[in-house]
Amino acid sequence: MVAVTPGADSRLRYAWRVCSVTSLGLVLIGIAGSTLNVALPVVVRHFHAGPLESGWILLSFLLVNTASLVFFGRVADLLGRREVYLAGFALFTVASLLAGLSPNVWFLVAMRVLQALGASMILANGTVIITDAFPPERLSQGMGVYIGTLSVAQLLGPTLGGLIAEAAGWQWIFWVNVPAGLVALGWGAAVLRRTPRRPKEPVDALGNVLLFAALSAALLALSETGSRGLASPVVLAGAGAFLVLVPLVALAERRSANPVLDLRLFGGRLLAYANLASFCNALARSALILVVALYFQAARGYDAFTAGLSVLPLPVGIGLASPVAGVLGRRLSPYAVSVGGAAMSTAGLGTLMLTADPATPYWVIGLGLFVAGCGSGTFLTGNTTQVMRALPSGSLGVVNGFRVMIMNVGIVLSVGLSLSVLTSSVGPELRAQVYAATLSRLSPVAVDHLMDGFQRTYAVLFAVALAGAVLAALARSRPTAVQPGAPAGRASTSR
């Protein structure tokens, strides 16, 4: 039994207070996303939004959030994580207030962009702050609680979203973030300690601009492919811009003394496969609440509140599995936890794929969602711990920003791809009815066509989850491998 010194005990108490701060950040962002996933039809009906505007209410946030994560990871490395983290809370809170005052749909999209910038400051630094605060032997427990709070957000979000949309109006979907954001800002300012700043180095401005532009072009093209087709001018322009920008990014990063994206840090076997597995898990998982909520509203005719209650098995599964996986992480390697979670997530999506039918009993759908949730919670805890243990401490901010960016690319594509596959089954003239959740009132034939879309969507997500499980299994590092620049205490081992 290892003796606990007063200093170690004090560090652990501080670490758990830090965990409460970062967990509040994750809850705030998670609730903001999951409430809108369920309440989107209410917002669409209020603004009489078409399919393009409807999709970009969601995608604008995800696109900007994804493309700015690496930038804010680098800024936090240079200016201080505490300062950037708290600034993120402030910006997110103000943007949420203004979003509820939106006079039209495009002003709402603009406020979602500001929310995304605040969320980037929070997400790029939350995992790093926890990694710095916890002793290495307790990191898996802290990470399990941190990841588990995402399920709290996803648990509260759908119910709150449906209830608020039906009872208080769509504006409160955004305004509910304001008091929560103020509480998180105050608690964070009180708890988080200032961290030593690295010596002032020039920010890679050119690299940031080129990376942002390349990601924006790629995500725009990929998210619009399903609904507009490969020959669409928007898709072709986005793909062409991406192909031109990629070599420019590589050239700029090779010449920069402080590259925003140091590719040498991502060349190891563990980081390469673990990040790809994380991408696949995010792609397979992230649109599930949105897709299932649309299923219950558009195909079964449920109201937003009932649909919100119906998707709860997914976040319940994440919430139960994440802390359990954190405890298991003290006995099992993060690698084993990650692989087991990826396999469970695949099994849950397989259940949904095989039972996509309006006549399917709810308990079957609930079981598939619960298993998928348990798998995702387990995977996220194991995968995050595995990656963060392998990172060189001097580049935690930028590399974690890259890690979260990879996941967010999966989230963006999950939403864009799922909506494209789903709505392609009913034709362009009925897509607006799907987003507004009024399709079930039109005709049984249209609903039958939509069910084909649900089945194809689940099949795509299942295939991606299966690929993620294979990649997670390949993310076993060699015991002697050390990532470039890593100190001896952060050897890249699977333990």
Tell me what the structure shows.
- It is a single chain.
- This protein is mostly helical and 495 residues long.
- The longest helix has 42 residues, at 6-47.
- It has two domains: 8-191 and 260-490, MFS general substrate transporter like domains (Growth Hormone, Chain: A, Up-down Bundle), CATH 1.20.1250.20; 204-259.
- The relative contact order is 0.14.
- The chain has helices at residues 6-47, 51-79, 81-99, 105-133, 139-167, 172-175, 177-191, 205-228, 233-255, 269-285, 288-299, 304-310, 313-328, 334-354, 362-390, 396-423, 431-435, 444-474.
- Helices cover 77% and strands 0% of the residues.
- One of its GO terms (cellular component) is plasma membrane.
- Indicate the proportion of strand residues: under 5%
Distance between the termini: 20 Å
- Name the helix and strand elements from N-terminus to C-terminus, one letter apiece: HHHHHHHHHHHHHHHHHH
Mean pLDDT: 77
**Which range best describes the helical content: under 10%, 10-25%, 25-40%, 40-55%, 55-70% or over 70%?**
over 70%
- CATH homologous superfamily grouping of the largest domain: MFS general substrate transporter like domains
Can you lay out the helices and strands and say which pair or pack?
Layout: H1 6-47, H2 51-79, H3 81-99, H4 105-133, H5 139-167, H6 172-175, H7 177-191, H8 205-228, H9 233-255, H10 269-285, H11 288-299, H12 304-310, H13 313-328, H14 334-354, H15 362-390, H16 396-423, H17 431-435, H18 444-474
Helix pairs in contact: 1-2, 1-4, 1-5, 1-7, 1-11, 1-12, 2-3, 2-4, 2-8, 2-16, 3-4, 3-7, 4-16, 5-12, 5-13, 5-15, 8-9, 8-16, 10-15, 10-16, 10-18, 11-12, 11-18, 13-15, 14-15, 14-18, 16-18
